[in-house]
Amino acid sequence: MLKKSIEEAINNQINAEFWSGYLYLSMSMHFEAAGRPGVANWFKIQFQEELAHAQIFMNYVNQRGGRVVLRPIAEVPTEWKNEADAFEATLAHEQKVTALINDLFALAEKEHDYATREKLNWFVSEQVEEEETARQLLDTYRLIGENGNGLYQLDRELASRTFNTPSPLAAE
Ligand code: FEO
């Protein structure tokens, strides 16, 4: 059985994952409208990944006999100056999510909830990747600047991103 403090914290994290998904879907729709289908695809896959993160937490709460409570998803921004601006916002957001996961990990340790701590290990590693990818794409877009050919080539590259079910979900 999950302690109430852990259940509450995971429910907050589920909301944060849905918010992240909503943010990236908003970015995807922005770049669709701006005629950048590749980066729009990249953010749409990112949206799917965030829903998968929420799903992993929801499955875990259910597995431990807890109660998932879905709360309202707050409004997200809808406009970005360009791709670099969106990836700067993505990196800043992922750094915040990393801090949330770390707080959750610390709470699990404080409550001696080692099953939750174990579940969070995957998210700790995932956040390293999420920050790294956002940083790399931000650096690349900054390098390209306003170069039309570079923007076109990178957009084509990002169009090939596909969704892979995260391992904790694939294993269920
Ligand atoms: Fe669910 Fe982008 O971390």
Write a structural description.
The chain has 172 residues and is mainly alpha-helical. It has a single domain (4-162), classed as Ferritin, core subunit, four-helix bundle (Ferritin, Up-down Bundle), CATH 1.20.1260.10. It is built from six helices and no strands. It has helices at residues 4-33, 37-63, 83-110, 114-144, 148-158, 167-170. α1 (4-33) runs antiparallel to α3 (83-110). The longest helix has 31 residues, at 114-144. The protein is elongated, with a radius of gyration of 17 Å. The model has no long low-confidence stretch (mean pLDDT 97).
SSE topology sketch:
Blueprint: H1 4-33, H2 37-63, H3 83-110, H4 114-144, H5 148-158, H6 167-170
Helix pairs in contact: 1-2, 1-3, 2-5, 3-4
This protein binds MU-OXO-diiron.
CATH architecture: Up-down Bundle
Mean pLDDT: 97
Number of alpha- plus pi-helical segments: 6
Structural class: mainly alpha
In whole angstroms, the N-to-C terminal distance is 20 Å
H/E series:
HHHHHH
Overall 3D geometry?
A: elongated
CATH topology: Ferritin
CATH class: Mainly Alpha
Attached small molecules:
MU-OXO-diiron
What is the CATH homology-level superfamily?
A: Ferritin, core subunit, four-helix bundle
Number of strands: 0
How many domains comprise the coordinates? 1
Q: Bin the helical content.
A: over 70%
The profile of the biggest β sheet is: none
Low-confidence stretches: none
- Beta-strand percent range: under 5%
- Rg, nearest Å: 17 Å
